[in-house]
Amino acid sequence: MTTVDVPITSRKDWMSDQEVRWCPGCGDYSILSAVQLMMPDLGVRRENTVFVSGIGCAARFPYYMNTYGMHGIHGRAAAIATGLAVARPDLDVWVISGDGDALSIGGNHLIHALRRNINLTILMFNNQIYGLTKGQYSPTSEVGKVTKSTPFGSVDTPFNPISLALGAEATFVARTHDMDRNHMIETFKRAHDHKGASFVEVYQNCNVFNDGAFAAVTAKENRSDNLIPLQHGEPIRFGANNDKGVAPDAQGHFQVVNVADVGEDALVVHDESRDSAAHAFALSRLARGPHEPTPVGVFRAVERDHYGALVGDQILDAQAKRGSGDLAALLRSGASWTVE
Amino acid sequence: MTDTASKDVTELDHVVIRFAGDSGDGMQLTGDRFTSASALFGNDLSTLPDFPAEIRAPAGTLAGVSAFQVNISDHDILTPGDFPTVLVAMNPAALRANLVDVPRGGTVIVNSDSFEERNLNKAGYATNPLVDGTLDGFDVYEVPMTSLTVEATKELGVKPRDAERSKNCFALGIVSWMYTRPLEATTAWIETKFAKSPLVMQSNLAAFRAGYNFGETAELFASSYEIKPTMFDPGDYTNVSGNTALAWGLIAASQLARLPLFLGSYPITPASDILHELSKHKNFGVRTMQAEDEIAGISAAIGAAFGGHLAITTTSGPGVDLKAEAMGLAVSLELPLIIVDIQRGGPSTGLPTKTEQSDLMLAMYGRHGESPMPIVAAKTPSHCFDAAIEAARLALKYRTPVLLLSDGYIANGSEPWRLPDVADLPDIAVDFATEPNHTSDKGEAEFWPYLRDTETLARPWAVPGTPGLEHRIGGLEKEDGTGNVNYDGVNHERMTRLRAAKVAGIVKDIPGVEVDDDGARDLLVVGWGSTYGSIGAAVRRVRARGMKASHAHVMHLFPFPSDLGEVLRRYKRVLVPEMNMGQLSRLLRAEFLVDAQSLTKIQGAPFKASEIEAAMLALLDNPSPEVS
Ligand code: SF4
Predict the structure, then answer these.
(1) Is B469 touching A (CB cutoff 8 A)?
(2) pLDDT in the model for residue B2
(3) Which residues on neighbouring strands pair with residue B287, listed in sequence order?
């Protein structure tokens, strides 16, 4: 195979000519520009890149990317993208989804795409609300949330998307937020480069229906106290003076501690590559919601053969053993006879 | 057949045999084996498997009875036969469930060992039908098959309980002797099938031979029968079921289109065999994906279609319900896609293993919005092959989802099929777009994904990986030409009409309706799908009575062939037999304003030719079935 250099592109090359139509101030804008800014650095071609989405505010994303794209139907983005990625392993397939799209109507497809380890980069914009249908609570809304459909407060326990993805055997799980472009770019790049399914939860502010849902952790002034950056191989520390950290309690559950109280050696050293998802899962349970110290970054990144590659291998194997198909022989593969 | 020389051999032109037993007795396998041996012998044949939805319903009960009917003949036949003339009943329940269908004078072969009190009770017989007169007027053969099988396999060291399992092979042996089937094919098949468990193989072989020899030597049977090979046209033949033919048709379509095949499917009766068959043939570049649900099956197929594959999803009625939204998406995206519906009895879970044709209206209208979709229906097991290629041709050429309808009857039924010469199959390849197709106001080359071919109205198919043609498509309404999102009402009407016109325009590209016309104008019987055989056989019978009738069979149900209205209006009477409540007849009435008379049957079983014949005679003002 000859390698042809990927042409040098700029952000503009990745922007479509369509007017972006999210509400002014919506967090989706900063995610879109992070992605458009990142694309030239990925070393990929526009024609080999496909963005697939379902329905919801986030799902308009593909229209704004000057790549191939499909705006599908509600909840099915992961399933549509699965077919495309399995049929065309040569493509870079991205899924853009929201908390309603991916976790409610499309929950089944998300978990199966993750367990099959389809070669997809899934960005789930979590705004903890239904935006496009004008403000109903979502599967990530906190208990007690008052919305049009829950005037007395929601009574459902929300999903923790990171825990869910880990439970679904995901090989790459990360979290980032719309207020930090560099962190988004860094996380999306890692997700893109991962072979297999990568799942990124992006905290995204819906300033119209759920403004400030993540401010307690993502606002500039709160980040040092409430965002816990995960660095592979490093003790987990945060705080304005790096004075806080994560350490196991007597039962082995992870908890936030003062480094001064426990000593540096007691801190958990982050290891995203562990075969067992238990470490990542424990980290995902650290915060009960985006109002207390919350880890961001890559929770888990492990290698496992991906479905599309395995399917491709089976085809090559079958062709090597039986030769590529001969239709006339296929028709005669049962008991056949000749009438003279 | 020198080994049958000691007894008379009587020649028959055809025989209809039904094997019936418990679901666990292996009746489908027995029937299938007898069918294959007959096919190899050179008979024309048609089969009707009939089994319960439960995998192993309680043994010995009526609910657990599984049956397989085969019609073998020395001339060309169209149906598995209205009534079995020979019934092989492995237990009282099988006798009770099936005797009603056997005309007096018919042959009944029973496994007499199973007619003991417990089994009689389970079947609901108060007294033993072998002695209480129930079987008066039938030609009854009581054979202690279980004990003879145990006896025959004793020397092999098989435990009696295991040996009993071979009793279906004993039954197969008897019937093979009775109808002078050659032994070799079945023997070879048993040897291959059970190669992994030599004891089971030997026990089945011993039982099969013992059954055969029993027929030959026991005083019971006075004569065996011979059904001469059918005079088939020269060529290579195989015996094929509808689902296998359909799977092969899809593989053929992928080869003829020079596109890899992608199947997204969720297991469902009676469609799963297509998934199984396609999964075997990865060396053809076939990708099959057993999806997490029906919706994922079609969604993945849509993704693969976007990627330039020949994309297919297979299911049955309940699955079509679930796929409806995604089918609408495919209409809007204008991508090639085949949705295969192997119809079964509905509504809801309905009769999963029984046949019905009740999804025609679903196929025609079962989506929100104006979402027209071509419909192709297969009429016989082997025709599933051609229908699959035709569905693919239309899908690819017109960039549209196409519904391919079959049903449980032809899906599981089989018939001999003269294999086509691969070189004669149509080339259905289409071109992907590779170049921009429009120039902007600024003079720049652009790609407009909805700029249509002026003749077919198909939009260009530009697959990811093609530089310069990057574009976005989706389920929102699109601006004519550019494909950009557009909510303008006038544009929406234009797009709605364009999508409709594209599908309607297929009429120019399909043959006229197939008519078997005998020149008279009294009666036309119109059918679609699997009623082909029953209608054809009924028409033959009516003609044999010296009367006139014609048969039109509609393969393209949307759009209808251009001459269909004219054909219908040629005849004084139009009769439409359907295994539903009259769906095609309603469409014909609405479309062509003809007085189409409906004949319906919703019993999970195909029409008997005699049922259609009776309705035809009534319309021909000749109510007496005695006249000939
Ligand atoms: S409703 Fe909320 S999520 Fe949707 S575009 Fe507006 S601000 Fe963004």
Answers:
(1) yes
(2) 42
(3) B262
* Residue nearest atom 1 in ligand 1 by C-alpha distance: A131
pLDDT of residue B262: 98
* Residues written for chain A: 340
Task: Show contacts of B274-281: CB within 8 Å, 24+ apart.
Answer: B274/B243, B274/B246, B274/B247, B274/B250, B274/B314, B274/B340, B274/B342, B275/B314, B277/B243, B277/B244, B277/B247, B277/B248, B278/B247, B278/B250, B278/B251, B281/A325, B281/A330, B281/B247, B281/B251
Q: Is A54 on the interface with B (CB under 8 A)?
A: no
Is the CATH code 3.40.50.150 the one for domain B514-621? Answer: no
A110 alpha-carbon distance from chain centroid: 10
Is the pLDDT score of A66 beyond 90?
A: yes
- By CA distance, what is A67's nearest residue in B? B470
Query: How remote is the CA of residue A23 from the centroid of ligand 1, in Å?
Result: 5
CB of B236 within 8 Å of a chain A CB? The answer is yes
**Cβ–ligand 1 contact at A290 (below 6 Å):** no
Asked if residue B623 has pLDDT above 50, the reply is no
pLDDT at A70 exceeding the cut of 70: yes
Position B6 scores a pLDDT of: 62
Buried b (16+ CB within 10 A) or exposed e, B399-412: bbbbbbbbbbbbbb
Q: How many CB atoms lie within 10 A of CB A265?
A: 8
Contact check, Cβ <8 Å, A80/B303:
yes
Predicted confidence (pLDDT) at residue A283 exceeds the cutoff of 90: yes
Q: Do the chains contact at B329 and A73, CB–CB below 8 Å?
A: yes
Cβ–Cβ of A335/B285 closer than 8 Å?
no
Could you tell me the two tokens for A15?
A: 């922007």
Tens of pLDDT, residue by residue over B360-392, are: 999 999 999 999 999 999 999 999 999 999 999
User: Rounded to whole angstroms, how far apart are CA atoms B137 and B99?
Assistant: 12
| Record: contact B284-A335, CB cut-off 8 A | no
CATH 3.40.50.720 holds for B238-424:
no
User: How many Cβ pairs within 8 Å bridge chains A and B?
Assistant: 212
Find the helix or strand (DSSP H, E) in which B143 lies: strand B139-143
B295–chain A Cβ distance below 8 A for any pair: yes
Ligand 1 centroid – CA B268 distance (Å): 40
The whole-angstrom distance between B300's CA and the closest CA on chain A is: 4
CA distance to partner chain B, nearest, from residue A126 (Å): 22
The separation between CA A196 and the C-alpha centre of its own chain, rounded to angstroms, equals: 12
Cβ of B296 under 8 Å from any chain A Cβ? yes
CA dist., res. B495 & res. B473, Å (int): 14
Q: Are B320 and A92 in contact (CB under 8 A)?
A: no
Token readout for B397 is 């050429």
| Residue A101 DSSP one-character state | I
What's the average model confidence in pLDDT over B111-115? 97
CA A329 to chain centre: 46
- Chosen for mutation from B191, B298, B470, B471 (greatest number of chain A CBs closer than 10 Å) is B470
* B8-226 belongs to CATH 3.30.420.40: no
Model confidence, pTM: 0.95
Q: Which residues have CB under 8 Å from A116's CB, separation 6+?
A: A82, A197, A306, A307
What DSSP element (H or E) covers A77? Answer: helix A77-87
pLDDT digits over B423-469, tens only?
999 999 999 999 999 999 999 999 999 999 999 999 999 999 999 99
Domain range annotation of chain B: 8-226, 238-424, 514-621
Task: Indicate whether B628 pLDDT > 70.
Answer: no
A57 lines ligand 1 (CB under 6 A): yes
Decide if domain A3-213 falls under CATH 3.40.50.970. yes
Residue minimizing CA distance to atom 2 of ligand 1: A206
- A10-30: pLDDT as tens digits: 999 999 999 999 999 999 999
Task: Judge if the beta carbon of residue A180 lies within 6 A of ligand 1.
Answer: no
